[in-house]
């Protein structure tokens, strides 16, 4: 398992993440979104969204994070996982 955290306050809408991981999307507000976030829930007060995944796309998420020029994306693995 791993977590992808997206800081929309840091996001500039450059969307380098979209071409590296298809779970990232362009939202109506011009910022990045990520599959699995609560689409109808309130925006987090700090603009940070974290989604947990349990699939084989860790490398895609890491590439998206590395491609983000404003470091708005981070990927962390669950304890005990590699």
Automatic annotation (TrEMBL):
The lineage's top-level taxon is: Archaea
Among the Pfam families in the record, one is: Fer4_15
| Xref: Gene3D superfamilies | 3.30.70.20
What this protein is called in its record is Ferredoxin
